[in-house]
Design brief:
This protein is α+β, with helices and mostly antiparallel strands. It contains ten helices and 13 strands. Helix 6 packs antiparallel against helix 7, helix 7 packs across helix 10 and helix 8 packs parallel to helix 9.
């Protein structure tokens, strides 16, 4: 302390004693006398070492003096205050993978003191599953001098638990331009990662519940379809027998009701298969016009009973044969056309198929169904293709009261 300025000596000695007792690094600003008698500001950095050769049973503070002018000291002090105050962990790691700098935020987030951490391998604090990834990134930064790396790692805390941190790192260089390690910041993202994990668990649980529901619906639908099919067949056979007008009307209602119920079950089964991913499209060459006309022919009788005109407008020049799943194509169009018939009291229903665009190997179709029904209220349009949502009142009985038809049509369109 003889070379220390008289005004700085008492405070410096007191700080030195406290640092020695607490075994921590001490950085202070002091004025030292030069050889010519002038006083010059220095930054004195005292580092605590135990069981040295000169002090095997005690401790020793080794000073490192750096010459700075007063403005440099003030700037450095301001920077240190900022680094010490921020919540992010500021780090510096050597090319060997050891901690060389940490700000106090390290202690706030992990519970470990800076003093006991410095000089130790970073791997000692990392989760075992993250160490290989960290070592690879360290090698890339040091060997390839990559300018920026972002990664998510888990660091051990004093409780033994691990906290997720987002590491943003940059390579550090010496005066000769060689990589000496890296510097960066660690941001605690543990709460966010836990929320993401909880969301993933909830999503998986929901998916399992949906699959179980779909499997249940598929099983029930299959079990009910067989007896319903038999009921439809026997009812149709009954209609061929000699019946009074009243008996024939009753038998006709039985057939229609059974067919409606069978259609609902089929749609439930198809929806459950689509949700479970068990419905596969069978794509092959098909006659586009013939497949479209089949839909009109199938629903013509239903339109006649309501005295509706059912028409097809098929643009000339469309490819005769295309690669489609003809069965699902007919099913999709049947749902849409039948829906238009159900909700039209008088007038007509028109199915139009036109070219929307084409390339050398593909053609896009614009399919439109128009009807003269009452339409749909604007506030119900957002739920148009949602299942179990009523959109408008049908003009006769309620064949699709559950709202499954358009929901199935949407799923088929995106299958």
């Amino acid at each position: 302390m003889k070379a220390c300025h008289p005004e700085d000596a008492p405070a410096s000695l007191a700080a030195w004693c406290v640092a020695a007792e607490e075994r921590r690094q001490l950085d202070i600003q002091i004025r030292l006398r030069r050889w010519d008698g002038a006083w010059r500001w220095h930054l004195a950095s005292f580092r605590c070492w135990t069981r040295t050769a000169r002090s095997p049973n005690g401790l020793e503070l080794l000073p490192i003096f750096t010459s700075r002018n007063r403005s440099s000291f003030l700037l450095q002090r301001r920077v240190k205050q900022i680094v010490d105050a921020i919540n992010e962990i500021i780090i510096e790691v050597t090319r060997e993978g050891n901690w060389s700098f940490l700000n106090p935020a390290w202690t706030a987030h992990t519970g470990f003191s800076v003093e006991e951490t410095l000089g130790e391998p970073v791997n000692e604090w990392l989760h075992p599953d993250d160490r290989l990834d960290y070592s690879a990134r360290l090698g890339e930064i040091v060997s390839k001098s990559q300018s920026f790396k972002r990664s998510e790692l888990r660091f051990r805390t004093t409780s033994g638990a691990y906290r997720w941190m987002e590491a943003v790192t940059l390579p550090a260089f010496d005066e000769e331009g060689s990589a000496t390690g890296f510097v960066g910041a660690l941001t605690d993202i543990h709460d966010r990662k836990e929320a993401e994990e909880e969301l993933r668990r909830v999503r998986e649980s929901s998916d399992r519940a949906n699959r179980a529901k779909s499997e249940f619906l598929a099983t029930i639908s299959c079990e009910l379809r067989n007896p319903l099919g038999g009921l439809v067949g026997k009812s149709r056979a009954l209609l061929e027998a000699k019946l009074t007008n009243s008996e024939r009307e009753t038998a006709s209602h039985i057939v229609e009701s059974a067919q409606d119920l069978l259609r609902v079950l089929n749609r439930l089964l198809d929806l459950s298969r689509l949700e479970a991913g068990s419905m596969k499209l069978v794509v092959g060459p098909a006659d586009l016009r013939l497949a479209t006309e089949d839909v009109i022919d199938t629903l013509a009788a239903k339109a006649d009973r309501k005295r509706l005109d059912l028409a097809l407008c098929f643009q000339s020049g469309l490819p005769k044969r295309v690669m489609i799943d003809a069965g699902r194509y007919r099913q999709l169009l049947s749902i849409l056309v039948e829906n238009a018939i159900d909700f039209t009291a008088k007038g007509n229903v028109v199915l139009s198929v036109e070219e929307h665009g084409k390339s050398s190997s593909e053609v896009a179709l614009h399919i439109q169904i128009e009807d003269t029904g009452v339409g749909i209220a604007s506030e119900k349009l957002p739920a148009l293709f949602e299942r179990f949502a009523a959109r408008r009142q049908p003009t006769d009985r309620e064949p699709d009261k559950l709202g499954l038809g358009l929901a199935l049509a949407r799923e088929l369109a995106f299958a």
